[in-house]
Specification:
Ribonuclease iii, N-terminal Endonuclease Domain, Chain A; 307 residues; globular; alpha+beta; single chain; four-stranded antiparallel beta sheet; 52% helix; Double Stranded RNA Binding Domain
């Protein structure tokens, strides 16, 4: 009888021990999941508030007074003082710096891209009522291209404030165009979430408005391959053929040297960080040599008469 009771007690102790170990493991797992999901929450987006009547336009087009500038260096550049700077901080945080991508600016980049597209499309629609859908699409594709967004970000100095993890910058100290474009789109989302649509429109129009006008007036919308194709057909020159002459760099950051040939003529080649871009620049070289596109007095490009 004593032996039987001893066995029962041992079994009970074993069951209790296993149960305690199971609870401890569950708690450890719960804490690990909680740590992985622990992402600093952004505040609730600010309700839409229209600009007050007669408000002064400052900097890049947003209403604010001189005394409101100064907390973050970018606020004076943007011409906008954030009601909650957590939006700005998130917009400047790259995924390489945080454990969870939810704590980076990737979601804001997604939102900013959509907002930029909407603002540009409405601007084109209202300013050019005689353009057809295809023509408006060409202008929009230039105004919201990654190259254009990257150029804007560089000119405004946004990339200098981007928080990056180790190894993200290129050897020459310059950021890839994709990262520069992403921070510009994230800033757009930050302003929208902080103050609403009208404020972000006021920020964007002075920036993209001139780019839209330039694209509409140029006649080429930076699609030099299309212009060359059309010119070659009209002039019966033959079909343009693009050839890769050389490539350099590692697989993740290759550069390509490409030229275009029409008939027996090979035109000046061009280097770029993508085949698509190198082909466009090679087409531009050919168009310049053919006299279809020339440099204007403002440092831009324009089609010659009759093209």
């Amino acid at each position: 009888m004593l032996v039987f009771c001893s066995h029962i007690a041992q079994i009970r102790w074993t069951v209790v021990s296993l149960w305690s170990i199971s609870l401890a493991r569950r708690e450890v797992g719960r804490q690990r999941v909680a740590r992985r999901r622990s992402v600093p929450a952004l505040p609730t987006p600010h309700a839409y508030v229209p600009l007050p009547s007669g408000a002064r336009v400052f900097g890049a087009g947003l209403s604010m007074s001189d005394e409101n500038i100064g907390r973050h260096p970018l606020e004076s550049v943007l011409g906008y003082r954030f009601a909650d700077t957590r939006f700005l901080d998130r917009a400047l945080t790259h995924a390489s710096l945080v454990e969870s991508r939810l704590a980076s600016n990737e979601r804001m980049e997604f939102l900013g891209d959509a907002i930029l597209g909407l603002v540009v499309c409405e601007c084109i629609y209202r300013k050019y009522p005689s353009l057809l859908e295809g023509e408006m699409t060409k202008i929009k594709s230039l105004a919201v291209s990654r190259q254009m967004c990257a150029r804007i970000a560089m000119q405004m100095g946004l990339t200098q404030h981007l928080q990056l993890g180790k190894g993200m910058q290129a050897e020459n100290g310059e950021l890839p165009a994709s990262l520069a474009a992403a921070v510009f789109e994230s800033i757009i989302a930050a302003i929208y979430l902080d103050s609403g649509f009208e404020r972000v429109v006021g920020f964007l129009l002075p920036i993209v408005g001139p780019l839209i006008d330039e694209a509409a007036q140029s006649g080429h919308q930076q699609n030099f391959k299309s212009v060359l194709q059309q010119h070659a057909q009209r002039a019966s020159l033959g079909t343009p053929i693009y050839r890769v002459l050389d490539e350099k760099g590692p697989d993740h950051a290759k550069c390509f040297k490409i030229c275009v040939e029409i008939g027996a003529t090979r035109y000046e080649s061009s280097w770029a960080q993508s085949k698509k871009r190198a082909e466009q620049m090679a087409a531009l070289n050919a168009l310049k040599e053919l006299g279809v596109i020339i440099d204007d007095n403002n440092g831009g490009l324009k089609m010659t008469d009759g093209n």
